[in-house]
Amino acid sequence: MRREMIAFVPAIILAGYWIGLEAMILLGVTALAVGWMTRPVLPSDDLEMTTLDPATGLPLRELALPMMDKIMAEARTSNRLTSCFVIAIDDPQNFTANTSTREFDDTMRRSAERLRSVLRDSDYIARLGGARFMVMLKPTPNPDLESMIQLSVRLQSTLEEPLSIGGRTLSPTFHIGFCQMSRSPKPDAESILDAAEIAAEEASRNGTSAIRAFSNEIRRSAEIRSALSAEVGDALENGEIVAYFQPQICTDTGLISGMQAMPRWLHRDRGVLGETDIMPAVMAANLRTRFYEVMMFQVFNGLKEWNAREELVGVISLPINEELLANPKMPERLQWEFDRFELPADQIRLVLEQEIVSKLSDDMISHTLSACRKMGCKIELAGFGSGPASINSVRNACAERIRIHRSFVAHVDHDAEQQRLVAAIISLAEGLGIQTIAEGVGSIGEHAMLAQLGCNHVQGRGIASPMPLEETHDWIARHMAKLEKTPRLNTRRGS
């Protein structure tokens, strides 16, 4: 039915007229045969190109799964085993927000090259989309858990070497989840890849550069997270979700300058669950407003207790979301809480999450935020430098402090590029006349370097882990006792 076949029609008609019906049929059959043999056929390479990643040249999931099935069949035939790895950038939304499309694609391409440099030529690599890769090992005899962990560490250390891309130095961190063939729920590609993805998700929930192997416990954890949304409503009403508090320290004096409120779920069966478990359940159950009401009560109750004990804890940071600020009754509710607990409004700092920053021009959000400021509440912008926060955002919010994202804080004690980035943020903040706090400080070295760079406040597990209200009293006493024993120099920063 191709247009080129039209050229044969006059010849077929003339053959029938001059020679007869048999010649007409013979020429027609010949034309059909020629047309069939010369039909355009898409080359196999082009078929593969439709399932290849344009940035890295690696096969995508659709093409990878059949190849993974072949590898698993080879493993069964040869009485050997294989393993599947899922490797992904930590906090991919933050990474993509801070890189251009070209920089992101170059990062993926360079990362794929680095993976290949560590693996054997016979190992199979694919890209799962976004900032994720898949690796399927060539079948080998008895690949035990320890050797898979060691391979994960080698892959991770190679991938996390700083990258020079477009005149910038990027330092992405990676988490890894893997599943051994012997632990796969079913002996097929879909099952082992799903299991590796579950392990990778578990790794991503446990901080930067985490590694997790798939197990029945991890699978149960994933099932538990799905079940938590059905329980979260009762937990909020029964007092199972409470605020833990993480101290914030002034780098000039060492004194406690504030506390960060963080949710914890005291689950009767599953122990203490963190924010990464709580928030998905809260959002799935559409209970964000009720959740923040509970957290607000916990914060005000803590403030009242600290004040009664004359413990100086500074200002309490309470993260809030877009839904709260879009509620015109929020200032009224806050004022009611201040009056009920007999507390001044300036002891609360509202931490604006990143999702709000780009919407500060919204009339309702702007009105609510303005009313909170007039009441006396302090304002802080979270994740500065890693999202949509801009100079206009700081101005519109009238923020008195910005929060330096943990991605800039990691390794700042020995990474020169991180030091330059943090110094630039601090210099900008000083020029605007606002303070800075660094989150996610994990070591004494990071604390010391941030203090040298001029960051005003620090917070993280290197200072103290989040703790329940009743434990803060002993921690405050120990911290103050340690400060009293520390020699003081009568000098000012920069002198």
Automatic annotation (TrEMBL):
Keywords: Hydrolase, Membrane, Transmembrane, Transmembrane helix. The lineage of its organism: Bacteria, Pseudomonadati, Pseudomonadota, Alphaproteobacteria, Rhodobacterales. PROSITE patterns: EAL, GGDEF. InterPro entries: Cyclic-di-GMP_PDE-like (IPR050706), EAL_dom (IPR001633), EAL_sf (IPR035919), GGDEF_dom (IPR000160), Nucleotide_cyclase (IPR029787), Rev_trsase/Diguanyl_cyclase (IPR043128). This is GGDEF domain-containing phosphodiesterase. It comes from Thioclava kandeliae. It holds the Pfam family GGDEF. The chain crosses the membrane at residues 12-37. Residues 80-216 form the GGDEF domain. PANTHER family: CYCLIC DI-GMP PHOSPHODIESTERASE PDEF (PTHR33121), SIGNALING PROTEIN YKOW (PTHR33121:SF70). Its EC number is 3.1.4.52. GO terms for molecular function: cyclic-guanylate-specific phosphodiesterase activity. CDD domains: EAL. It is an enzyme of class 3 (hydrolase). Residues 225-480 form the EAL domain. SMART domains: EAL (SM00052), GGDEF (SM00267). The keyword Lyase does not apply.
